[in-house]
Each structure stands twice: as structure tokens, then as C-alpha cells.
Amino acid sequence: MSQFYDAIVIGGGVNGGSVAYQLAKRGKKVLVLEKDRIASKASGAAAGMIAAQAELQDDDPLFQLARKSRKRFASLAEELKDLSGVDIELINKGMYKVALTDQEVHEYKQIIDIQKRAGEHAEWVTGDEVRKQEANVSDDILGAMYIEHDGHVSAPQLSQAFIKSAAVLGVTIQEFVEVQSILFEGEQVVGVATNEGEYKAENIIVTAGAWSSSFLRQTELDLPVYPVKGECFSVRTHQPLLKSTIFSHGCYLVPKKGGRIIVGATVKPHTYNQQVSVEGVAGLLEKAKHLLPSIGEAEWDQTWAGIRPQTADGLPYLGEHPTYNGLFVATGHFRNGILLSPITGEIMADLIERKEPAIDVHPFRLDRLTATNV
Fold this sequence. Notes:
The chain has two domains: 3-54 and 156-224 and 313-373, FAD/NAD(P)-binding domain; 92-148 and 226-311, 2-Layer Sandwich (D-Amino Acid Oxidase, Chain A, domain 2), CATH 3.30.9.10. The chain is α/β, with parallel strands linked by helices. The strands form four sheets. Strands 5, 6, 7, 14, 15, 16, 17, 18 and 19 form a nine-stranded mixed sheet that branches. Helices cover 28% and strands 29% of the residues. It starts with a strand and ends in a 22-residue tail after the last helix. It is built from nine helices and 21 strands. α4 packs across α7. The mean pLDDT is 95. It is globular and about 65 Å long.
């Protein structure tokens, strides 16, 4: 016997959890289907950076989306903890985007000017000024873009907080349920077929990360979303080596509680293989030692990899299918899934309720790269 919902979310990562949570806040009956465990893919593997300014360089639609999403975290952290009891471990101690070459010095100073014109705060600090605040970093650092408002959270904790808060509000969470196909009547979504039977809903939201495009092939919409493996490792020390996140080209170091530092991440496109390679970790370790020489004396903790969804133009997909009513997609966030999760949930809930989102979502529409829109 089929079960009926207002909305079914395919994928139990951070963005699926955010969408479910926002819909539940608006009184919707929601089902989340996850083929594995909650946050078992990219959402659980991320370092949790809220790097709206460190990751992005131009004042473009993605930057605007990131800025708005970053502002949500302070209130969201309290809101989710009150509901779920889960602390997302929000830390706002700023971020240093460090320059190791004269070319990077020039480039980062230009980025600071762009971001200041956009109304954001960023400042250039010399290498000596960086080392005054972070005594353990390398003498090779020539200077840095200091970003006061970029911080980080625990990505697994944020993902769990969204899901558990959604459950408190009445959302049904089902793990180890694999969606096999989406069901339609004409051009209207009516549900999904799974390995556990059929579930009916007038709204289906695909938030399955790098696996999202497979659900849309039956609709003849080819979303150019592809997987990018990112390998990471972590170390531990008794005395913290860093206070703020150090972000550089090809490597970042994120200090977590308890003297733990997460180091990431490699970029290996077009693979779903989650094995961690010796080559990948060795390359990251050399880059990390160049930034923070004393990390070589730290205790090894663990390694892991996540599969992140990238798009052909670097922008996420946020919107409704151009042909099938009630079929929505939120994917392609690449390295910004954690950062963009608050605003993603709000946007998708607005679209499902046929409301105008607070930000222009036209640049993120599903058909922007099809032949008729090039």
C-alpha cells in the first residue's frame, strides 16, 4: 500500500537535510530516502569550512548566494541545537588565505578590492602579521587575505542536526532505501519506486550529490554533474598548532576542537572511487608541512575521501525541472555544500511553495546549459 507525502527528498546529505528541515518548518509532511546512512558521502567527509570569501573570487551569483547563506549560520546553530541537541561546532575565528608567491600576492589584493566593493570585509596582512597571530606557520608565507567572517562547522554534526531537527518536526527518515525510479502521470510527478515499494508525493526533490543526474535520465534532461574525489587526512596534537583556518592553493588546514587539524583536499575528477591513495595523502602532507612545518611532529589520526558534485560551469543546480511539474533538483555544490546548505533549504522550500525566493535563482536553473539556452 502506497504512503502519501507532500514532498519526498532523495538523498540524506546536508542539503537533503536542510530541504527537509525547511519544509517541515512550513508544516509539510516530508519523507527523506537515503540509500546508505545519513551523511555517509560528501556531507560526512567535508572539512566544514564556511568559506564564502576564501573559496570564491568574483562578485557573481554564486558569491551572492554564499554571502547570504553564511549569514544564516549563527542563528541556525542555536535553532538546530535547541531542537535536536546537536552542536554543529560553529567556530568564527577568521580565515587566512595565504600567498606563497608574488603572483598570489597580487591576485589576492585584487580579490580584496573586489570583495570590498561588494560590501564585504577583507584585509591584506603581511607574512609577519600572520606569524604574529599564528606563530607556527611557515616563513615562506608572504602575506595573506584575512577574512574575519569566514569560519567553519563540523560537517557531520551539521548534517545530523538538520536531519534530527527535521525528525523532531515530524519528517520521516528512512535509511537503506534506494530509489529506483521517479513516477509520473503525464508531466506531473506522483512519487517514487524503491526497493521497499512505492511512495507517493506531488513534489520530489533530488539532493543526491554526484549521483543526482542518474535520477533525471528518465526525463531526458542531461545535467552535466560529475564526481570529484577529495582526499583528506587529520592529525592531533596536545597543544593546538592553529587558531584560525589556513587556506592556500591546493591545501587547507582547519583546526577543530581537541587539538585536531583537518587537512584537505585533493581534486580528482570523474571517479566514484572512495579509496584514499598514498600519492594523494603524500602530496597533501608535503603541502601542509610547507604551510605549517610543525605538523610533521603531530600524531596521525585518520584518512578519508568524499565524492563531491561538480557542474560544467561551476554553479549549483537549484530549481524545478523545465518539463515535469513537481520535480526539483538541488545539486552541484562542489566544495561549497556545507556553506550553501542553509540557503539551499530555504530556496527549495520557497520554490515548492510557489513563492519567490529571496535571491535570484535564474543563474542556477536546470536548463541553463541545454542547447536552447546556450
